[in-house]
Amino acid sequence: MKKIVALLGLLALLTVSRTHAQSMGSEYRTAIGAKFWPGALTIKHFIKDDAALEGIAYFWEHGFRFTGLYEFHGDINSAPGLKWYVGPGAHIGWYNNGYWYHDHYYDDGAASFGIDGVLGLDYKFRGAPIAMSLDINPYFEFLHHPYANVWGGLGIKFTF
Fold first, then answer.
1. Nearest Cα residue to 40 out of 9, 13, 67
2. Strand ranges, E, within the chain
3. Could you say which DSSP state residue 44 is in?
4. What is the pLDDT of residues 103-158, one digit of tens each?
5. Residue 123 CA: distances (Å) to CA of 64, 74, 80, 89, 130
6. What are the angstrom distances between the C-alpha of 29 and each of 45, 88, 109?
7. Which residues lie below 8 Å from residue 142, measured CB to CB, with a gap of 6+?
8. Nearest to 60 by CA among 24, 20, 96
9. CA–CA distance from 50 to each of 1, 104, 121 (Å)?
10. Does residue 38 have a cis bond before it (omega within 30 degrees)?
11. Residue 13 above 60 pLDDT?
12. What is the mean pLDDT of residues 28-38?
């Protein structure tokens, strides 16, 4: 994991030097970064002015999960650089060791699959290639023992 984070940091530093004028303002097209709770790597790309695709690779003590989200973004008029976002998605993952959750045991190598949602705020710092986000990600797990839960957290991203 340390090698992945180091490689991501190097990639971000290299792209900062190639940042175009749009990402230095209060808007951006693509962002790569980290999310905390649980630990994750994230990439977001706007496909329209008000819609983005986001991929999140979560690493946690009981496994790995990849979540894909389609996000609708809207401006908050009184706060330049600040946007709200909401959207649907799905996840797939694997447990890497035995895990108990609500009286159900997940074996090593057990798969995880479900639907996700997201609700959050995204702030792009004007004049810097940095964006931060704060969100909640409710999800419903389908496999093995169906249940609902929520993840989310603070994201810090380099924009370009």
1. 67
2. 30-36, 40-48, 51-60, 63-75, 82-95, 99-101, 104-106, 111-124, 130-141, 147-159
3. E
4. 777 777 888 899 999 999 999 999 999 999 999 999 999 987 888 999 999 999 99
5. 27, 12, 9, 21, 9
6. 6, 20, 36
7. 113, 114, 115
8. 96
9. 33, 40, 13
10. yes
11. no
12. 94
Under the banding of pLDDT at 50, 70 and 90, the label for residue 63 is: confident
The two tokens of residue 60 are 């946690």
Rounded mean pLDDT of the chain?
A: 85
Contacts of 141 by beta carbon, 8 Å cutoff, 6+ apart: 112, 113, 114, 147, 148, 149
- Residue 5 phi/psi, 5-degree rounding, is -65, -40
Of 157 and 26, the structure prediction assigns the larger pLDDT to 157
Which residue is it, tokens 């790309």? 45
pLDDT attached to residue 136: 97
Tokens at residue 81, please?
């650089």
The mean pLDDT of 71-99, rounded to a whole number, is 93
Nearest C-alpha neighbor of 35 from the set 156, 158, 160, 159: 156
Q: Are 113 and 141 in contact (CB under 8 A)?
A: yes
